[in-house]
Amino acid sequence: EVQLVESGGALVQAGGTLRLSCAASGFSFDDYTLAWFRQAPGKEREGVAWIRTRDGSTNYADSVKGRFTISSDNAKRTVSLQMNNLKPEDTAVYYCKTLLYWGQGTQVTVSS
Fold first, then answer.
1. Burial of 30 by CB count in 10 Å (0-12 exposed, 13-18 middle, 19+ buried)?
2. pLDDT at 30 over 90
């Protein structure tokens, strides 16, 4: 059974940093694309960052490019999202995703 468990969400001031983690199980991990999505109140869920675990290649939404960094630790089966210079518009529930599977989400709130 595929499981994705996010952690690390918190309340932080604008300009601050957070690091989210996603612990994965139930699949081979070392040749998959994993992603972070987010959903703000009243808005559609949107993709934020993607990583291909086979070679570490990454891709980012324009809104977070230069501020967020996605990384994976294949030995620990985790994907992380380092978020710097956070803005109030980054406030959302952040989800980890692979294939058709989603985690339960972790809340990030950025105060102005």
1. exposed
2. no
